[in-house]
C-alpha cells in the first residue's frame, strides 16, 4: 500500500487501521550515514556490543547504538528492519518490545529488529517525526513504514508482519539474513495467531508477482469475512497493481493532458501516481476532475478516489485532507 508514503511507494496495503498509526514522511538522512569501516554490518555491530550471533540466535538486537542503527538502515535494502524506540522503565514500552520481538524472531531472518533508547537519543524521535515514545517504526529500503505507538494484540502484530513483508516484496526487499544476536533470555517459541489461508495465498501470489492471483485470494477472504479490513485494503492494493502492471507512465500522462474530460485517462494517471508515491498529486487530480464535471463521469471519479483512499489507508493525513477537499468539490 508501503515514502513517499508510510510505507514505500509501491503499495499502500497496510493494516494500520486497527492500531495507532505513525504517518507522514520523515528525514532519515541523519541515520543513514556510511557504516564505519571496521563494521561489516549489523551483526558486527552486535558483536561489538557483546551480542554475537549464533546459529540458534535471534534477529532482535536488544540495545543498538547510533553506529548499529546506521548499519540497519543499510540492511533494510535486504530485509525489513523494525526499530523499537524504547522508554526504559515504561511498562507499555516493554510490552511493545516483547510482542514485536517474538514476531520478528518467528520470521527466521526475513526481518530484523533493534531496540534503541529514545530517552538517551531523543534525536531519533525527531528523525522519525515523533514527539514522544515508545513506538515501533519500520524501514524498507531505507524508507519509513508506519507501525504503532502503543501496545497491540498479537493477532494485529501478525497482520503487520504479513503486510510489512508484502510491502518489502513489492519494493524488491526480500532477502534473509542469519541471526544478528544471541538468543534472547527468557524468549519463548512464539505461537503466532494463524494467518487465514486466503491471506497467506494472497501474500504468496504477490511474492510470485501474481497480482491477479492476489486479487482472487483477497476476494475469497472477503467472501469468508466481509468485515476483514486487511482483506479490503489488500484487495484494493492488488487491483491497483493489476491495473498498472502494463501501464506506460509517459503515455498515460500525455493522454490525460490531451483529454482532460476523459475520466479513464485521469484515473490511469492517478493510479500510477499512487503507485509511484505521488499520493497528493493523484488525489488532487481526481478532486479537480470531480469539481469540474457534473455528468456521470463525476461519480466514476469519486468512486475511484474512494478506492484509492483505501489503498493508501484511512488513517493517512493525506486521505483526511483529500476527503475535506472532495466534500468541498461535491457541494
TrEMBL record:
Top-rank lineage group of the source organism: Bacteria
Signal peptide limits: none
Organism: Micrococcus cohnii
Region spans: Disordered: 173-198
Protein's recorded name: Putative thioredoxin
InterPro entries on file: Thioredoxin-like_sf, TPR-like_helical_dom_sf
